Amino acid sequence: MANKKAALLVVDVQNDFLPGGALGVPEGHAVIPVLNEYLRRFAEAGLPIYASRDWHPEETSHFQEFGGPWPPHCVQGTSGAEFHPDLELPPSTVLITKGTDPEEDAYSAFHGTTDDGESLADRLQRDGVTHLYIGGLATDYCVRASALDARRLGLEVTLLIDASRGVDVQEGDSERAIEEMTANGVKLGTLETVELVT
Ligand code: VGL
Ligand code: ZN
Predict the structure, then answer these.
(1) Domain Isochorismatase-like spans what residues (predicted)?
(2) Is 177 in the pocket of ligand 1 (CB under 6 A)?
(3) 3-state secondary structure the chain
(4) Whose Cα sits closest to atom 6 in ligand 1?
(5) For ion ligand 2, residues whose CB falls within 5 Å
(6) Which of these is catalytic: 98, 105, 140, 149?
(7) Does residue 142 have its Cβ closer than 6 Å to ligand 1?
(8) What is residue 1's predicted lDDT score, i.e. its pLDDT?
């Protein structure tokens, strides 16, 4: 098919989602060197790179103290909300900010916007992206929700399983999320198997 174009979406690789953070994902650090290799490959191929960040207000129904499921994390402007310093995002990376609405969980990067206020869906369409490669944290929440939304929008989607880790609040959550994603047409990829067609 003509006019295929790949892009990389790095989901929520923020200090609070790494071990020691407010909502640390077990083995979260393992994704960083792998994502850095994907980032190099996509940048070298001249393909677009997007990075989402969870960016909550201090008071949100997403947090336990206000009736939600999670301890406070990724509060706007805090060090926990910063991207991990070892993540090598190139300057061309398009930042996607989500979770700013105090009444929304906003797990999916597709609930977020660019600095110009454009939705991720509109930005991908404008950039001509047809195939989204997704990695980051956490497999069973924001990665899952983003991959499923991308499929609903008709994009090809590859989950980079070597560059993703889950919270696993219940044992097996990440495995079940991967099954749900693949049942919805998401392909699985690793550094060994992914080939970028440019
Ligand atoms: C996430 C739980 C709460 C995520 C965000 O990025 O996967 N998980 N907020
Ligand atoms: Zn959150």
Answers:
(1) 6-192
(2) no
(3) CCCCCEEEEEECCEHHHCCCCCCCCCCHHHHHHHHHHHHHHHHHCCCCEEEEEECECCCCCCEHHHCCCECCCCECCCHHHCECCCCCCCCCCEEEEECCCCCCCCCCHHHCECCCCCEHHHHHHHCCCCEEEEEEECHHHHHHHHHHHHHHCCCEEEEEEEEEECCCCCCCHHHHHHHHHHHCCCEEECCCCCCCCC
(4) 142
(5) 54
(6) 98
(7) yes
(8) 53
Domain 6-189 has what CATH class? Answer: alpha beta
State residue 198's pLDDT score: 61
Which regions in the chain score pLDDT beneath 70? 1-2, 197-198
User: Is any ligand 1 atom within 6 A of the Cβ of residue 31?
Assistant: no
pTM comes to 0.97
- pLDDT tens column, 58-77: 999 999 999 999 999 999 99
